[in-house]
Amino acid sequence: MATVNFTGAVDRDLLKRAKIIAAKTETSVNALFNAELRYLVETFEAAEAGENENFRCLLDFSLGRINDLQAKRQLSIDSDEDLFLLMAQAHLPMPRLPEATTQDMVETLRALSA
After folding, report:
1. Are 37 and 43 in contact (CB under 8 A)?
2. Rounded to an integer, what distance in angstroms lies between the CA atom of residue 59 and that of residue 71?
3. Fewer Cβ neighbours under 10 Å: the N or C end of the chain?
4. pLDDT for residue 52
């Protein structure tokens, strides 16, 4: 299999954490990256070949392109628990909330405890 080099940017803390995992598992960050990218591509292609839009929906949710309500509607599920379970089964990370939303939640919690 031919390989190519490419340049990309990654969060400094994420790279540090990946290096720790690579060291603990006696592998390289490159091998971890290749395994995860291969999984993502092969899963997406298999879903697409089977004309199953569920993985695309979950990927869109993971990337923050759609919100949880849109994802649940597209997947015809009612609960957050089912959505989280599907995300775990698809081996996809949960999306991060925008910083402003997170700060609003912190302020709301602070107001409740005051």
Report:
1. no
2. 10
3. N
4. 78
pLDDT in tens, 48-107: 777 878 989 999 999 888 999 999 999 999 988 999 999 998 888 888 777 787 788 888
- Give residue 75's identity as a one-letter amino acid code: L
Distance CA(49)–CA(51), nearest Å, equals 5
Q: What's the predicted TM-score (pTM) here?
A: 0.60
Residue among 83, 52, 89, 48 at smallest CA distance from 66: 83
pLDDT tens sequence across 8-35? 898 899 899 999 999 999 999 999 998 9
Is the Cβ–Cβ distance between 66 and 60 less than 8 Å?
A: yes
Which tokens sit at 53? 């839009």
The pair of three-digit structure tokens given for residue 114, joined into one six-digit string: 């005051």
* Gap between the Cα atoms of 43 and 46, Å rounded: 5
| DSSP category for residue 94 | P
